[in-house]
């Protein structure tokens, strides 16, 4: 149901329901139920056209006796009258809407009526005389009360059936309906069949039976995601935060798509983000809107993740952590992480993050397949020549701003442009100029390309021989422009072979001499350890063998790789070796990758 549909259903219950029972609104903790009741339903019911109904909202959290509910209801109703009639001091009428009910007793004593001194029995009599006509009694946190649930439902049923009170119960019913899954095995046509049955606890069964008499309809609550987020943001009245509207709901390609499961944590994230924005304004720290959005989204997503795993740790030696945010465009900033956990923030930490984020965005795919120009180019097989020429012109112009098109797309742009130039025979002088701009934009950026975004990892074959040769030459120019430096690998001697493989794979492999990589891995020695390696380690090893440049291998190193490949092939033929199907798949991929790369290198040499 939408908010409007829930509003209409509840209004119909108030006006026409004669069942003498309550209705229930159930949803997860932090899902926005209270927000809906207090900001959407309450104002809707109070409208003149809807009958000007009042909502009497009472939380049962921590209450241990039904008489306490009566007292809370009375207190809530009396607060209506105080606000309306200004029965206390002049200022009391102004602040009554924000005075907590837990201090209401003390406030009322100023006019000689101390509710705290009234006995439960007397209070019950006072409550019995209260008129709840034209009012919806909203009882929240049913699952958090200390009152026996059967006793509570009896109390509710008595009010609805005997007193004609209209009641909305707001709860997380899953916390009441405790159950376990029971496995049932039975024979069917000579075969054993397993079924799984949900078995409710004894208290849950009693609750279900009592609920049948007390509750007529149960509404499954689903919040209006965008409206709820925007309303939360509006409450903070912060210009920087207001510019973040829509950024969480905007569709985009990210590492993990986060779902907002707890709006209370969104409120916390908003507060922390506003604190940071205000700090930046105080110390005149300037940043663009993308950085400020990153602050907000990183905090929102991180706090949602913490609900599932409160022990999440920030990545070592890093200013940003996209894993903790789950969003490649808006990672969690280290200074935000520390501010949330330790309430400490420094100007230096923010300035470092701003500089790092500006550079980081160059390598992140901000638009992906939503980029209108790249979408046309990548769909060249079904595009028109006119649309392709327009896209090529746009790409040419946009490359003047290095942050406009992610560098991660550069290899694919080159690949597709050469297909157009040679296989499709397209004549467009901007093709070569675009490639020149790409090479210039990549200059000196080699160390920024890691395992997840190295270039030319996946390409489409160019059929034209001349085009294929030019593609090979351009790849060489690109890598020369990137200026990969062949550094010496320094690894602690204490690392075992598996750790060495993982460490090298996680680094920028192109910065190392391939002959030294193979020597450090010690292929001739690790073959005996292969069965002990995890599938992840084998994947790291395959990545290393795929990434190294076979043109730079010495004869001894190449012979070592080929021998390693042959020994893996023999290993795969042995049935007594403890290798699961995934490890065997990884090893077969390693063999195929080595054979393919050697063949491709030999074919290039022949040309």
TrEMBL record:
SUPFAM superfamilies: P-loop containing nucleoside triphosphate hydrolases. Residues 19-196 form the KAP NTPase domain. It comes from the Bacteria. Gene3D superfamilies: P-loop containing nucleotide triphosphate hydrolases (3.40.50.300). Pfam families: KAP_NTPase (PF07693). This is KAP-like P-loop domain-containing protein. It comes from Ruminococcus flavefaciens.
């Amino acid at each position: 149901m939408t908010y409007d549909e829930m509003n209409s259903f509840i209004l119909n219950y108030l006006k026409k329901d004669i069942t003498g029972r309550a209705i229930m609104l159930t949803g997860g903790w932090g899902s926005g139920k209270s927000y809906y009741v207090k900001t959407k339903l309450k104002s809707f019911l109070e409208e003149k056209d809807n009958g000007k109904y009042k909502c009497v909202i009472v939380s049962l959290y921590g209450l241990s006796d039904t008489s306490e509910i009566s007292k809370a209801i009375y207190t809530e109703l009396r607060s209506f009258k105080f606000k309306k009639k200004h029965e206390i001091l002049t200022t009391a009428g102004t602040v009554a809407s924000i005075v907590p009910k837990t201090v209401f007793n003390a406030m009322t004593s100023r006019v000689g009526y101390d509710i705290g001194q009234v006995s439960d029995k007397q209070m019950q009599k006072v409550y019995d005389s209260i008129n709840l006509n034209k009012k919806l009694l909203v009882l929240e946190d049913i699952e958090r009360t200390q009152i026996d649930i059967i006793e509570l439902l009896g109390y509710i049923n008595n009010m609805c059936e005997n007193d004609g009170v209209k009641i909305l119960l707001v709860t997380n019913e899953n916390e009441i309906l405790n159950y376990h899954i029971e496995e049932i095995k039975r024979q069917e046509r000579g075969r054993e069949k397993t079924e799984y049955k949900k078995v409710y606890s004894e208290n849950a069964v009693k609750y279900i039976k009592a609920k049948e008499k007390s509750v007529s309809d149960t509404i499954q609550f689903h919040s209006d995601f965008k409206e709820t987020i925007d309303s939360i943001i509006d409450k903070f009245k912060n210009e920087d935060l207001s510019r973040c509207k829509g950024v969480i709901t905007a569709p985009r390609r990210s590492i993990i798509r986060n779902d907002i499961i707890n709006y209370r944590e969104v409120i916390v994230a908003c507060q922390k983000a506003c604190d940071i924005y205000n700090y930046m304004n105080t110390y005149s720290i300037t940043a663009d809107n993308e950085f400020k959005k990153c602050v907000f989204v990183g905090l929102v997503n991180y706090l949602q993740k913490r609900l599932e795993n409160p022990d999440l740790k920030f990545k070592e030696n890093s200013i940003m952590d996209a894993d903790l945010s789950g969003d490649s465009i808006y990672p969690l900033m280290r200074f935000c992480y520390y501010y949330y956990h330790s309430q400490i923030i420094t100007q230096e930490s923010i300035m470092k993050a701003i500089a790092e984020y500006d550079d980081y965005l160059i390598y992140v795919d901000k638009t992906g397949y939503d980029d209108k120009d790249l979408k046309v180019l990548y769909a060249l097989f079904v595009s028109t020549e006119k649309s392709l020429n327009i896209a090529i012109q746009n790409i040419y112009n946009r490359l003047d701003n290095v942050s406009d098109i992610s560098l991660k797309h550069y290899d694919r742009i080159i690949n597709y442009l050469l297909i157009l130039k040679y296989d499709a025979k397209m004549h467009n002088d901007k093709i070569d100029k675009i490639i020149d701009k790409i090479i210039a934009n990549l200059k000196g950026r080699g160390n920024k390309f890691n395992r997840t975004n190295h270039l030319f990892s996946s390409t489409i074959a160019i059929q034209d021989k001349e085009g294929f040769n030019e593609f090979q030459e351009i790849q060489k120019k690109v890598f020369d422009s990137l200026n990969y430096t062949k550094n010496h690998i320094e690894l602690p001697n204490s690392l075992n072979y598996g750790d060495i493989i993982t460490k090298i794979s996680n680094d920028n492999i192109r910065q190392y001499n391939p002959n030294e990589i193979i020597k450090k891995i010690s292929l001739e020695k690790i073959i005996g350890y292969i069965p002990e390696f995890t599938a992840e380690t084998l994947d790291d090893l395959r990545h290393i063998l795929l990434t190294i440049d076979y043109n730079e291998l010495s004869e001894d190193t190449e012979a070592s790789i080929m021998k390693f490949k042959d020994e893996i092939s023999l290993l795969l033929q042995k049935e007594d070796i403890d290798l699961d199907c995934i490890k065997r798949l990884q090893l077969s991929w390693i063999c195929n990758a080595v054979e393919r790369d050697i063949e491709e290198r030999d074919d290039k040499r022949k040309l």
